[in-house]
Amino acid sequence: MSHRTVALLAAVVAAAAAPAFAADAPADYGTTVVAPAEGIGQADWRVTIKATGVIQPEFEGAKDYAISGYPGLSIRRPGQPWKFGAPDDGFGFAVIDTDLFQMGPVARLRSERDSSDERKIRGLSNIDWAVEPGLFVEFYPTTKTRIRAEVRHGIGGHDGFVGDIAADWIEKFDQFTVSFGPRLALGDSDFMNEYYGVSARESARNGRLDAYKADGGVKSVGVAGAVTYDWTPNWSTTAFGAYNRLTGDAKDSPIVKRLDSKDNFTFGLGAAYSFDW
To answer: Which secondary-structure segment (H or E) carries 124?
Structure first.
């Protein structure tokens, strides 16, 4: 990662008040970060520290999988009502927070691509890590249903616009919280061509990949689910998984066809510790 990208990452993470260090790292689970209430020196904050391990593709469109880990942090007033947070949400916090609607800044990381690591795509240009700051909105049609959308812009690895739309059905069974729902990922032409396009020069260097220009649109569709168990008021663990299938110009990319990687899976396990401060 270049020094410039590291500096940008630090600035975005500090602004979002939630660190992330994994490739394509999701942000949170269990509790959504909310804006602090007014007043200084009042009663405790509820702080949650998290650690998560993930098995996921090595990079955007990769066939091989890698294990990674990342920490997480959320802060809220003890009196704030519980709000659901999915493991694949971006890092963020709500500046507008009501029973039915939330909105605020969000950020994600997208992993680098080193073509020398994969023999079949050698000759392609390497892609640096990308930081993606943006905005999220959430809507709760019912107490058990959440619809969330994120719009972000890349800095570093790409300079395109990306979006994610998710819907979750949420059920609480005593100490268990279960969620499940569909996922949709989009990207503009700058993003899609960066990760799935092949220039004439790259095609000549590789020798087996045809030149290809990817247009913007729907990148993938899929589903995701999670199960959280509250062992005590302070400790909880979360297991989660997701399946995404590349579609549109991403699926038709010669990179994806060469790697046979249109189907992508993610599995993860996390632990969280909460305390008043």
So the answer is: none
- Rounded Cα gap, residues 8 and 241, in angstroms: 29
Domains in the chain, please, with CATH?
A: 3-276 (2.40.160.40)
Give the CA distances from residue 122 to residues 5, 112, 136, in Å, rounded to whole numbers and listed in that order.
24, 15, 36
User: What pLDDT digit, counting tens, does each position of 250-274 carry?
Assistant: 999 999 999 998 999 999 999 999 8
> Quick one: residue 96, left, alpha or beta (phi over 0 = left, psi -120 to 50 = alpha)?
beta
CA dist list (Å): 198 to 14, 112, 121: 35, 17, 10
**DSSP characters over 16-78:** HT----STT----SSS--BPPPS-SS-S--EEEEEEEEEEEESSTT-SSEEEEEEEEEEEE-T
Pairwise CA distance, residues 124 & 61, whole Å? 13
Q: Are 178 and 171 in contact (CB under 8 A)?
A: yes
* Four-residue CA torsion sign, 127, 130, 132, 133: negative
Q: CA nearest 155: which of 176, 136, 131?
A: 131
Q: CA of 234: how far to CAs of 237, 257, 271, in Å?
A: 11, 46, 11
pTM (two decimals): 0.79
Tokens of 107: 């950020």
Instruction: For residue range 152-210, list pLDDT tens digits in order.
Output: 999 999 999 999 999 999 999 999 999 999 999 999 999 999 999 999 999 999 999 99
